[in-house]
Design brief:
The chain is an alpha/beta fold. The chain has two domains: about 30-65 and about 355-450, no CATH class; about 80-350, no CATH class. It has 13 helices and 15 strands. The strands form five sheets. The protein has a five-stranded parallel β-sheet with strand order 1-12-4-5-6, with helices on both faces. The longest helix is centred in the last third of the chain and has 46 residues, at about 425-470. The protein starts with a helix and ends with a helix.
């Protein structure tokens, strides 16, 4: 090569040509822009769907879906066996109601029989943990519900305070709650025997999920006398027998999970907890029945009852108006004594947990953002333009189906272990499945509408331009 060859300059570029970036780099930036735009649009749709889901949960149909979800979870809790059941119900449906010997005669459960039953259960070699009578002993404005009540209370207090026994005994109060603690059993000396047998009334279309730890009754008024130190805090039957509140959640989970909920209504505020109804079938199948002809001396041996370290509840299981429906069993009303028994079992064995509102929102967002975060990562790493359609449309749908099935299966599998009652897991799964189809339909609808508006907007201009050219 000569010196002249070295000095030869290349021919100039055609007029109008300017240096440009490599086509691959421009296409990559365009794909990145589309991937980010699609991600943020999906996030926006997630927020909208979560807001709609929250609104739907407050409707009657939304509550029905949650009720169904909760019922499914209840059926997956592991029931106890007869050998390790820590609560026993004794049926006194056969004991007749007698006319009370009081200033205002009314029908009450025969007090003589109740006293004999309690006495027969207390033996040195087989002493229960506690005994509860699901019978309303509330006095009236005229005095004790029955003239025999005061002596029964004295006997029960003696058993409780006996150093050899130390056996908690609780009797029910209901209609006298508004009179104040000093009047729950007419005499403040018997205050430690009183426990509330109120069962919370569920909302319309719901079953009884919750039972109270206690009721804080706002009873103080100029018309109601009270005594120093009274708090109006009446423990519920299940709580009073177990004498242990629901364990709190771990500190790290407190922002998201709860074991109790605070509810208020009128003068009564309730600290309630979810009830594990898994022992209900076992308790209600054939509770040992006591009637006036029952030989109480051989009663425990006849029914092979082992009461040591167990909670015993005594109440009517048949021919009573005190019945309620529970999750998963809407067709069968159960006597209130069974609900108190399940409440005691829950406090003794395994409390149930549920998400707070903040936790529900966090889970909803985390699942959706996880799906679309994975889609975004695939799209940003991809160098194949032909795969864009798959990443934008098919991959989110496949991931949504996978996550929804996983959520459904894991919740059912883990609930016996974790006792985590996620009552909107079915709704969450449905939202995940519906997200991509709704988003794609909305985008196509927006594109069609935008095209129609643009066509309508441009058509007069085109017509005007044509007329100008013709002139």
């Amino acid at each position: 090569m000569t010196a002249d060859d070295k000095n030869v300059t290349p021919p100039p570029s055609p007029a109008g040509d300017t240096p440009s970036h490599p086509p691959d780099a421009s296409n990559a930036r365009a794909r990145t822009h589309r991937a980010l735009l699609s991600f943020f649009v999906s996030v926006a749709f997630t927020l909208v769907l979560v807001a709609l889901k929250t609104k739907f949960e407050g409707t009657f149909f939304g509550q029905q879906v949650e009720e169904m979800s909760y019922a499914v979870l209840q059926h997956h809790l592991t029931p106890p066996t007869a050998d390790n059941l820590s609560v026993i119900v004794l049926d006194i449906s056969g004991i007749p109601m007698t006319v009370a010997s009081s200033l205002q005669p009314d029908k009450v459960t025969d007090r003589t029989q109740l006293s004999k039953i309690v006495s027969s259960l207390i033996t040195e070699d087989d002493k229960p943990m506690a005994i509860g009578l699901d019978v309303d002993f509330s006095p009236s404005a005229h005095g004790y519900a029955d003239a025999a009540d005061e002596q029964i209370f004295k006997d029960f207090l003696k058993i409780q305070n006996d150093n050899d026994n130390k056996l908690p005994i609780r009797v029910g109060v209901n209609s006298s709650l508004g009179l104040g603690p000093g009047k729950w059993l007419l005499n403040p000396d018997y205050l430690t025997l009183a426990s509330c047998v109120v069962v919370p009334t569920p909302e319309r279309g719901q079953s009884t999920r919750y039972m109270p730890e206690a009721l804080d009754v706002d009873y103080r008024s100029p018309m109601v006398p009270y005594y120093a130190g009274e708090t109006g805090h009446c423990p519920a039957m299940g709580f009073a027998l177990v004498q242990a509140s629901v364990p709190d959640v771990a500190s790290w989970a407190k922002p998201f999970l709860q074991s109790t909920v605070q509810k208020s209504g009128g003068p009564i505020s309730k600290n309630e907890f979810l009830v594990d109804y898994s022992p209900l079938d076992l308790l209600s199948a054939s509770p040992p029945e006591i009637d006036p002809q029952t030989d109480l001396s051989n009663f425990k041996s006849q029914h092979h009852l082992k009461l040591a370290k167990k909670v015993v509840l005594i109440g009517r299981t048949k021919n009573t108006s005190d019945t309620f429906t529970v999750p998963g069993r809407p067709e069968t009303p159960y006597a209130g004594v069974f609900l108190h028994a399940c409440a005691a079992y829950t406090l003794l064995e395994r409390p149930l947990y549920q998400l707070k509102e903040g936790g529900r929102l966090l889970v909803d967002l985390a699942l959706s953002l996880g799906i679309f975060g994975i889609v975004l990562a695939f799209r940003l790493r991809s160098r194949q333009p032909a795969a864009e359609a798959f990443f934008e449309h098919r991959l989110p749908e496949l991931l949504a189906v996978t996550v929804a099935i996983t959520v459904f299966a894991l919740e059912l599998w883990l609930v016996p272990i974790t006792h985590f009652m996620w009552d909107d897991f079915i709704l969450v799964s449905l939202v995940l499945l519906a997200h991509s189809p709704i988003e794609h339909t909305s985008r196509r609808g927006y594109s069609w509408l935008a095209g129609r508006v643009t066509s309508w907007w441009d058509s007069p201009v085109s017509s005007s331009d044509s007329n100008s050219e013709g002139e």
